[in-house]
Specification:
- Among the domains are: 1-233 and 437-460, Orthogonal Bundle (Cytochrome Bc1 Complex, Chain D, domain 2), CATH 1.10.760.10; 248-419, Cytochrome c-like domain (Cytochrome Bc1 Complex, Chain D, domain 2, Orthogonal Bundle), CATH 1.10.760.
- Helix content is 16%, strand content 20%.
- It is built from 20 helices and 45 strands.
- Helix 1 runs antiparallel to helix 5 and helix 1 (23-32) packs across helix 7.
Length: 1043
């Protein structure tokens, strides 16, 4: 007998488990096989977890919704690629992780799913987590989910229906929240009298359909059905019970290796595959190949880190049970291996396995005849193996000393863990739905066919899968020469195009008050840090400067590629503070970005894909250190590129960044503002051309940015924008002391066209660029100081904001007074957005100023007799009139005429706002506001307008051709009821802040867009769509991206 380290021979000992003959599991069987649980009625739970396939689908990666033949299960099941649905082009599988078996799911006590996203919070362990606190993806503030159910399996059963690619689909359920989707499923079921009858019988209850059919009972039934799938009657169990002949001598040798530590010459498998369930239910980095679409746009899968946000958990996955493993190939979280032998051989030596693995994937049955390719599969796997070598699991798992004979013995042992009944299809029939058993109440029961006729009915045709759309929509182009549009294609129901990930919402998410107002976020959506300075922040050689009072910045972008906009703050002494967006439910602090790089205060931040790898890199601009750093995104870490690598000379104080392809060479260039109080300085560059490999070249002089600076550099808020509608990005700078500038791109450089009789803002700081009058060109709003409460301010002008209206050819006219936007107080961050979703761009502006007591006190104490206290206190009093000013919200009444309505919208915050971003944080269909406040916590104002009958919307994000992956410079037009709106995709500066590179349109009362047109960067390609439903978040790929 092998002395195995197994506490119990029978893993079911001490567990109360349902039987398939019980009423509730029988109902669960019908639900498990019902396509009515999927959004488009094309998929059932059994599509990926059929009993004849050992509770899996026998595929490396599943094909959920949009299958060519929805009834074909297992090998041969392929994807019907619909460009208007699927984010990843090609015919590859659309689910990112291998289907874990449902067999013996009742034996898991701590965590469900590969990444353990449904898991027990309590320290003690109970069978299947019964009665314990369970955290799920629906949990708020990372606490227990009160609706998780009575055990882990019930908690797990709530989520496959919510997955876009597994069951949700792209049709009528695609835009619903998780709870709304579950309610819609219940509505389907309770509308059918036979389903209601089945629920009554199963739960022995009476009542109305509303009382009888609930989602809690749906998950209870699904859970009990799965929990009844107990298959543990194995040769190994017989052997442990005393039958020495139950397993072969080779298997016994394998068992000895399995249970013996590596240090004693064994394989040490038991260190993870422990207990009678053969899993410790912990999370380990195995170094297994990462293939398929992955969990983000780079084909990566961070594993457990997606749940915990802890860098130590990156690429870690739950230890799978080995019970019945010989029947559940392919193996690994991504289905990377076909046989147990190759799995174990790689497992014990990933470094060697990396060098021999077939990254063409043609050795995997599923991919042999598919045309899809994954260019990053090798790179991603190399990253995983590198992490494995750094992790504690390297010592635990790495065992290159094992011989082929040893591996064969281990295979023989693992094969003994398979239940005898899995070889007998008749023994599995009680778990397979059928009409005879009454499992087809509404005619939606999955009746599967198989490419292997030995499993059941052979498939006679490939059919056509339900897709949520009708005919796949083609992309339309303008000819590169003539610019003649091909007649547009009318889209059907689903307009989701190239959606980024499962987390990408395709419609309203959060619930709000449906009012024209903002509310200040609290709780999980509040920020936890404070912008702080000390007197050293103000010191300048032998004096001090109040210019640190200008500071508090932020940048917004999807730095972890989960489809939700994250926020990074430049927070004074606290350095860079990063918050990851927890799907609109709250913020998760992250330490991925360094707080400090050098001694300087970080002032301005930028988020853009610098190297064209579809990852958002981060740029730091400093206040005192006067250096600019680029941080290459290697999520969840970043690589710092300094001056020696970027060729960016000292950048002085950085006050804003913009990104765009000014020379139309396909990559992303940078534009920076550098306000400084130093005179006669060696001028830093502003226009920086991307030369590749993280290097930039300053082009100010060679490209004609003449007149931007003189002896001083007072540039703020740079923006790339096509002002004259010629397809080339021009340059706009706001500037202090009448230094706002306009430069028109002439193809070889820039021509300064600033008309000083028109561009008259005295202290231009914040900026917003947009088509405020919907006439097809970009206007320019500049924030400045308005002194209505004081007769004068030393040095500064006080005539307020400016609105410069474009004549369509780049000619600007000052229409400030007729627009009604002059008074913004001491204005800083400014953004343009359609806050009321009526189809006209509005303007939001933060303001305030302060001369801190610590500066005055320092001056008086440090330089006695040099500073006059009464003058300083008088100056402090002048500035104090801006201390408690409220933000401004200019609502566009149409044609670019505005009314200030901040109070009516509940915007009464009097904090010192500086940098801002206007974006839809919670993806509910309206634009929220994030503000970096000086000497205070940041704030989030949540817009409540979405959901009103006059507040429909469309949001579009573009996927461009690398290296301009965000399609910066593209223009998006929508036409609704004869009115056309235009947005330019940009990453410009609002003042120490930016909006994300996506465009938002309000459509008012209209629920349908007559035409959506995209003119891609350079103007040679155009995409046209008609009949697009509103209330969508679309991600649309360039027509030349391989499909």
């Amino acid at each position: 007998m092998v002395s195995a380290v197994v506490p119990e021979a029978d893993p079911t000992a001490g567990r109360a488990l349902p039987k398939i003959s019980d009423a509730v599991p029988t109902l669960g069987r019908a639900l498990f096989f019902s396509k009515s649980l999927s959004g488009d009625r094309d998929t059932a739970c059994a599509s990926c977890h059929h009993p004849l396939l050992a509770g899996t689908d026998s595929l490396s990666l599943p094909v959920g919704v949009n299958a060519v033949n929805p009834d074909l299960l297992g090998p041969g099941r392929t994807l019907l690629y619909v460009p208007t649905d699927d984010p990843v082009p090609g015919n590859g599988p659309n689910v990112p992780r291998n289907s874990p078996t449902t067999f013996n799911i009742a034996l898991y006590d701590r965590a469900m799913f590969h990444d353990g996203r449904a898991f027990i919070l309590d320290p003690d362990t109970k069978p299947n987590g019964a009665g314990q606190s369970i955290r799920t993806p629906d949990s708020l503030l990372q606490q227990a989910d009160p609706l998780a159910g009575a055990n882990l399996t019930e908690g797990q059963a709530r989520f496959p229906v919510t997955s876009l690619f597994e069951m949700r689909g792209f049709g009528e359920f695609s835009t619903l929240s998780n709870d709304a989707l579950r309610a819609a499923i219940v509505s389907r079921l309770k509308s059918n009298s036979q389903w209601v009858s089945r629920f009554k019988t199963a739960f022995n209850i009476t009542g109305t359909p509303d009382q009888v059919v609930t989602f809690e009972r749906v998950t209870k039934a699904l859970s009990d059905y799965q929990r009844s799938q107990i298959f543990v009657s194995s040769p190994w169990l017989k052997y442990r019970q005393g039958d020495n002949a139950a397993i072969t001598d080779l298997a016994k040798t394998g068992a000895k290796l399995f249970f013996k530590p590596i240090s004693n010459g064994g394989a040490g498998c038991v260190s993870c595959h422990s207990g009678s369930h053969f899993t410790d239910e912990k999370f380990h980095v195995s170094g297994f190949p990462q293939l398929g679409r992955g969990k983000n746009t780079f084909g990566e899968d961070d594993g457990r880190r997606e749940v915990t946000q802890s860098d130590s958990d990156i690429f870690a996955f739950r230890t799978p049970s080995l019970l019945n493993a010989s029947r559940t190939a392919p193996f690994g979280h991504a289905g990377s291996f076909t046989t147990l032998y190759e799995t174990i051989a790689y497992h014990v030596n990933p470094e060697a396995g990396l060098s021999t693995y077939d990254f063409s994937l043609k050795s995997l049955d599923q991919f042999r005849d598919l045309t899809v390719t994954y260019p990053r599969v090798k790179t991603n796997t190399q990253d995983v193996v590198a992490q494995f070598k750094k992790s504690p699991d390297y010592v635990l798992l790495n065992n290159p000393a094992l011989t082929p004979t040893d591996i064969s013995a281990l295979v023989a042992f693992v094969q003994t863990l398979t239940d005898y009944r899995l070889a007998d299809s008749s023994a599995l029939q009680p778990w397979i739905a059928s009409d005879v058993l009454g499992d087809n109440p509404d005619g939606q029961m999955l009746t599967p066919c198989f490419s292997n006729p030995g499993l059941g009915a052979a498939c006679l045709n490939t059919g056509g899968g339900g897709t949520g759309t009708s005919t796949p929509a083609d992309f339309n182009e303008l000819s590169a020469t003539g610019g003649v549009a091909i007649p547009p294609v009318t889209l059907a129901v689903s307009t989701r195009v190239l959606a980024n990930a499962v987390n990408c919402p395709d419609g309203r998410g959060a619930v709000n008050q449906k009012q024209r107002r903002f509310v200040t976020a609290t709780g999980a959506l509040d920020f936890s840090h404070t912008f702080a300075l000390n007197i050293d922040s103000y010191i300048r050689e032998d004096n001090v400067s109040v210019n640190a009072s200008n500071l508090a910045g932020l940048a917004v972008g999807d730095i972890n590629a989960d489809c939700w906009p994250d926020v990074v703050f430049a927070s004074g002494l606290d350095g860079v503070v990063t918050y990851l967006n927890d799907q609109g439910k709250g913020w998760i602090p992250s330490s991925s970005l360094p707080k400090h790089i050098d001694a300087g205060l970080v002032t301005s931040l930028g988020i853009a894909d610098i190297d064209g790898d579809y990852k958002s890199d981060v740029v730091y601009g400093n206040f005192l250190g006067q250096k600019l750093y680029i941080l290459e995104n290697r999520w969840p870490s970043f690589i710092i590129h300094d001056e020696s690598q970027t060729n960016i000379s000292p950048a002085h104080n950085t006050y804003g960044m913009a990104f765009g392809d000014y020379d139309n060479d396909g990559d992303v260039d940078m534009l920076t503002g550098h306000w400084t109080d130093k005179s006669n300085i060696a001028r830093s560059g502003h226009l920086r051309e991307n030369m590749g490999d993280w290097k930039f070249s300053s082009r100010d002089a060679s490209k004609g940015l003449v007149g931007l600076v003189n002896s001083n550099d007072f540039s703020f808020s740079p923006n790339f924008a096509d002002i004259n509608n010629d397809g080339k990005l021009d340059i706009l700078f706001t500037g202090d002391f009448k230094n706002s500038q306009v430069f028109i791109n002439n193809g070889n450089g820039f021509t300064r066209t600033t008309d000083p009789t028109v561009i008259t803002d005295e202290n231009g700081m914040g900026a917003a660029v947009g088509d405020f009058d919907n006439d097809g060109d970009l206007d320019w709003f500049v924030g400045s100081i308005y002194g209505s409460k004081t007769p004068s301010i030393p040095v500064y002008g006080i005539t307020g904001n400016r609105m410069y209206r474009n004549d369509g050819k780049g000619g600007l006219t000052d229409v400030t007074d007729s627009a009604g936007v002059r008074d913004g107080g001491w204005a800083w961050g400014t953004c343009a957005a359609d806050f009321d979703n009526d189809g006209d761009l509005d303007i939001f502006q933060v303001n305030g100023y302060i001369l801190p007591d610590q500066v005055v006190d320092y001056l008086l104490a440090t330089f006695p007799g040099k500073e006059d206290e009464s003058r300083l206190r008088e100056l402090q009093n002048i500035y104090s009139v801006f201390l408690n000013d409220t933000s401004r919200l200019f609502i566009n009444n149409g044609a670019g005429v505005f009314t200030e309505e901040a109070a009516a919208w509940g915007l009464d915050d009097t904090r010192q706002g500086r940098g801002i971003s206007c974006l839809d944080v919670d993806r509910d269909g309206d634009i929220d506001i994030v503000t970096a406040n000086h000497l205070d916590k940041p704030s989030l104002r949540l817009n409540q307008v979405a959901g009103r009958p006059d507040s429909h919307f469309l949001q579009v994000r573009l996927v461009g051709i690398s290296p301009n992956t965000e399609a910066l410079g593209a223009r998006v037009y929508i036409t609704v009821g004869g009115k056309t709106q235009m947005r330019e995709v940009s990453l410009g500066s609002n003042y120490l802040g930016n909006n994300p590179a996506e465009v938002h349109f309000g459509t008012g009362t209209s629920t349908r867009i007559d035409e959506l047109k995209i003119v891609w960067p350079g103007g040679s390609k155009t995409t046209v769509m008609t009949g697009v439903d509103a209330d969508r978040f679309l991600v649309i790929g360039h027509p030349d991206i391989p499909r």
